[in-house]
Specification:
Elements lengths: L27 H4 L8 E4 L18 E8 L2 E8 L2 E8 L3 E3 L3
Antiparallel strand pairs: 1-2, 1-5, 2-3, 3-4
Length: 98
Amino acid sequence: MVERSHGFRVRTRNVLQKKPREKGKVTVNQFLRTFEVGDRAAVTIEPSVHKGMPHPKFQGRTGTIVEKRGDAYVLRLKDGNKIKDIIGRAVHFRPLGE
């Protein structure tokens, strides 16, 4: 038998899937979105952009922007009893209150 794959996108058939009306190119505004340190943001992964994608298990989680690192942002959130820093691009984060 062949050994099962345990890749980055394993078991994400529905999580990383767009609805039919949302399919297509990503708008420029999503790429140019900016955050300030201390802003609250939610992880909403954009499946059509693979670069800077956080791990799918953090989809829907909210946290605080801690720093900017190159083109990416560092989002600090709580995972169980641990505090974790998630690195991802702005297209995969959505500001809260929007």
